Amino acid sequence: ARLEIPLAEVLRVASFYNAFSMEPVGRHIVEVCLGTACFVRGSGLLLERLEGEIGVRAGGTDPQGRFTLRTVRCIGCCALAPAVRIDGVTFGKVPLDRTADLLGRYA
Q1: Can you tell me whether residue 26 is helix, strand or coil?
Q2: Angstrom distance (rounded) from CA 5 to CA 36
Q3: CB-CB contact of 24 with 61 (8 Å)
Q4: What's the gap between Cα 34 and its chain centre?
Q5: Helix or strand or coil: residue 31?
Q6: What is the rounded distance in angstroms from the CA atom of residue 105 to the CA atom of residue 82?
Q7: What single string gives the DSSP state of each residue in 63-77?
Q8: How many alpha carbons lie under 13 Å from residue 84 in its C-beta half-sphere?
Q9: How far apart are CA 39 and CA 36, in angstroms?
């Protein structure tokens, strides 16, 4: 109102860019790369493991508001596949049995 911008215009911009969220997000953003190199090296299984450990499907936030789990198409670390990014920090060659340790750093 103070900027005299119609609410519809604000909603249009906020819903267009994925940097904006229409729902609350967790304190930590966990992004699993599903680009070709990462997917071939098991990022799909990594995503399933993280979904189980966080307790939400991709795109969701856990009830405690700690983690929001997202997928991305490529984070540009193909040589480190499979890659996961948490709060902007990239972790490469992530083995399935280390996902709990990764999340534990941020719990």
Answers
A1: coil
A2: 41
A3: yes
A4: 11
A5: strand
A6: 19
A7: TTSSEEEEEES--S-
A8: 26
A9: 5
